Amino acid sequence: IVTFLLFQGSFNSEEADAIVKECIENVVGGDDYSQSQVNKWTASIVEGCLTQLVKQGKHYKYIVTCAVMQKTGGGLHTANSCYWDTAMDGSCTVRWENRSMYCVVSVFAVSV
Questions:
Q1: Quick check: is 4 in a domain?
Q2: What is its main location (predicted)?
């Protein structure tokens, strides 16, 4: 297994970024912000991202977080920090927006 992981390469954040953007577009698309839809949207986004990441068949445990916020002119700041094997593990954060909301999704991939 160790040999396989060495040839597998490190986490590809560009692939994860594309998966996340596609999931957000599929779930929220051009919809306007709706408080009654936020729980459904966030659950669908994280589940969609996890499903697509796992389908890649790579040996990672994934953690996906999602925040949706209405555009009201207020500030939004996010940060994360990880202590792990930087040669194999990785993360990406996608900030997406449309005319009425922001969506911030973070993916953390920990090699197994």
A1: no
A2: nucleus
- Asked whether residue 2 is domain-assigned, the answer is no
Number of CB atoms found within 10 A of residue 10's CB: 13
Q: Which two tokens stand for residue 69?
A: 């916020």
**Angstrom distance (rounded) from CA 28 to CA 14:** 21
Total structural domains within the chain: 1
CB 63 within 8 A of CB 82: no
Confidence (pTM): 0.89
Domain containing residue 95? 10-111
Per-residue pLDDT 10s for the chain (112 aa) are 444 444 456 889 999 999 999 999 999 988 999 999 999 999 999 999 999 999 999 999 999 999 999 999 988 888 999 999 999 999 999 999 999 999 999 999 999 9
| β-pair partners for 67 | 104
What CATH number does residue 28 fall under? 3.30.1140.40
Map tokens 């396989």 to a residue.
Answer: 4
